[in-house]
């Protein structure tokens, strides 16, 4: 896996993935930025949510669950000192569908948390308290 981060100006950077996709990262206006993109720490949080969501949806699809929507809401806390690392991250999955089995949703979230999500596991190994829960929305 490869990526490049290129400085644009001020504190704005363009991240380019090895798969050919780009994302703008920028800082807040009070730190020399123009607020035109996500912050780098927000990118980390989004990456964790994306990785875990991919796992949950994949597991539910393989178990033939009728998923119509899957959303991961993330909340994180950071240390007050520099470096302001994540100390806690909570992933809340909202899974929608008609006739979803709660046992299957619970299993998918648990497997993502304990076995498959590389990003969550990496944060956990670094001492970040990572928690997960879910809710099912019947359609």
TrEMBL record:
Extract the Gene3D superfamilies matched here: 2.20.25.10, 3.30.300.20
| Pfam families per the UniProt record, alphabetical | OsmC
User: InterPro entries this protein is in?
Assistant: KH_dom-like_a/b, OsmC/Ohr_fam, OsmC/Ohrsf
What is the name listed in the Swiss-Prot or TrEMBL entry for this protein?
OsmC family protein
């Amino acid at each position: 896996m490869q990526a490049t981060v290129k400085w644009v100006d001020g504190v704005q950077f363009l991240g380019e993935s090895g798969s050919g996709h780009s994302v703008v990262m920028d800082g807040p206006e009070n730190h020399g930025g123009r607020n035109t993109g996500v912050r780098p720490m927000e990118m980390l949080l989004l990456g964790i949510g994306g990785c875990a969501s991919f796992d949950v949806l994949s597991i539910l699809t393989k178990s033939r669950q009728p998923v119509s929507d899957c959303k991961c809401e993330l909340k994180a806390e950071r240390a007050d000192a520099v470096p302001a690392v994540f100390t806690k991250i909570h992933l809340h999955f909202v899974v929608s569908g008609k006739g979803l089995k709660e046992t299957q949703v619970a299993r998918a979230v648990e497997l993502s948390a304990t076995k498959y999500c590389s990003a969550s596991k990496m944060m956990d190994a670094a001492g970040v308290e990572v928690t997960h829960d879910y809710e099912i929305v019947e359609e």
